[in-house]
Amino acid sequence: MSFYRDFNDKIAIEAWNGQDRSAYETIAVKRLSPTIGAEISGIDLSRDLSERQIAEIQRALDENLAIIFRDQPLTSEQHKAFARRFGTLHRHALAANTVIAGRSADPEILGWKTGADSRYTAGDAWHADVTCDPVPIAISLLRLTRLPPSGGGDTAFSNQYLAFESLSAPLKDFLSGLTAIHDGSQAWTAGYGAQPDPGKSYPQAEHPVVVRHPRTGQRFLYVNPAFTTRIVQLSRDESDAILTLLFRHVEKGLSFQTRVQWSENSLLLWDNWASQHHAVWDYFPEERWGERVSVLAKEPPRD
């Protein structure tokens, strides 16, 4: 079994790296690993960017799934203004409960502070953001406003195109056509202990297990342990077994992962459909603060 998994990884990665990656005109792109992640330079995100620059940033995101910009001292409003170049901003169900740097909560910014008294930190598991929405987040943009003084607090990413392509052919065929339930209460109530407002419930949606990306046309795996609770077409025991297998496949797939190291005034963007991420909590008892702005997709996931 290990041989076939490794062989499939090799074939999938060769195909991924064999894709055409022509030169950029308005930005510089340095890949962080062969399979996911890039650092973007040669651009000032505080300025009014041209359509050509935005198009090349979008292309870099499509090709690398997670991209980080260094030395970008943005305000929260500049952060949001840049995010709006990619679409309509998402309003998180928990944003109203957060206070950011002493000011009132902003429904378009999900802020958090992790420190010595924190019971958990946001994102401390493999996941994609808010997949419980009927039309989930397409892109997330994150700034850290306080970094742990001793380092740590990396964000790990996993390429879900490769997570799917590295599965065996029979398993890929089996998963195609299946759908799964994504439940907000799985992440926010069971995970964080948060409760919805009286008379309301957290969103729940049914999405394909394998999704085709609306821009690239490639298929990727679309289940994650933070939100996905069951595969609709299977019995509970079958669903649990298959989901556990897929979650472990993503977790153990080091060949299609990378870790992004933070520095002051960095801005990190990721494709929230075709990647998963994990905020590494290795800095206790030091503090790490952040603000996330996200962009809605234009359509629900489809295969």
Runs in which pLDDT lies below 50 for 5 or more consecutive residues are none
Please name the CATH architecture. Answer: 4-Layer Sandwich
Average pLDDT taken over every residue: 91
CATH H-level name... which superfamily?
Answer: Clavaminate synthase-like
Main sheet record: 7 strands, mixed
So what's the overall shape? globular
Structural class: alpha+beta
Q: Got a strand count?
A: 15
CATH topological fold name: Double-stranded beta-helix
How far apart the termini lie comes to 27 Å
- Number of H- or I-type helical stretches: 7
Which CATH class is shown? Alpha Beta
- Output the radius of gyration: 19 Å
Order of helices and strands: HEEHEHEEEHHEHEEEEHEEEE
Spatially, the strands of the biggest sheet line up as 1-2-3-13-5-15-4
- Indicate the percent of residues in helices: 10-25%
Strand content: 15-25%
Pfam family, one: TauD
GO molecular function: metal ion binding; taurine dioxygenase activity
Organism: Telmatospirillum siberiense
Protein name: Taurine dioxygenase
What does this structure look like?
This protein starts with a helix and ends in a 7-residue tail after the last strand. The protein has helices at 2-17, 51-64, 76-84, 160-165, 169-175, 184-188, 236-252, and strands spanning 28-31, 38-41, 66-69, 110-114, 137-146, 155-159, 179-183, 204-208, 210-212, 219-221, 228-231, 257-260, 267-271, 275-279, 288-296. The protein has one domain (2-19, 92-262, 272-296): Double-stranded beta-helix (4-Layer Sandwich). Strand 1 (28-31) and strand 2 form a beta hairpin. The strands form 4 sheets. The protein has a 7-stranded mixed beta sheet with strand order 1-2-3-13-5-15-4, covered by helices on one side. Strands 12-6-14 form a 3-stranded antiparallel beta sheet. It is of the alpha+beta class. It has 7 helices and 15 strands.
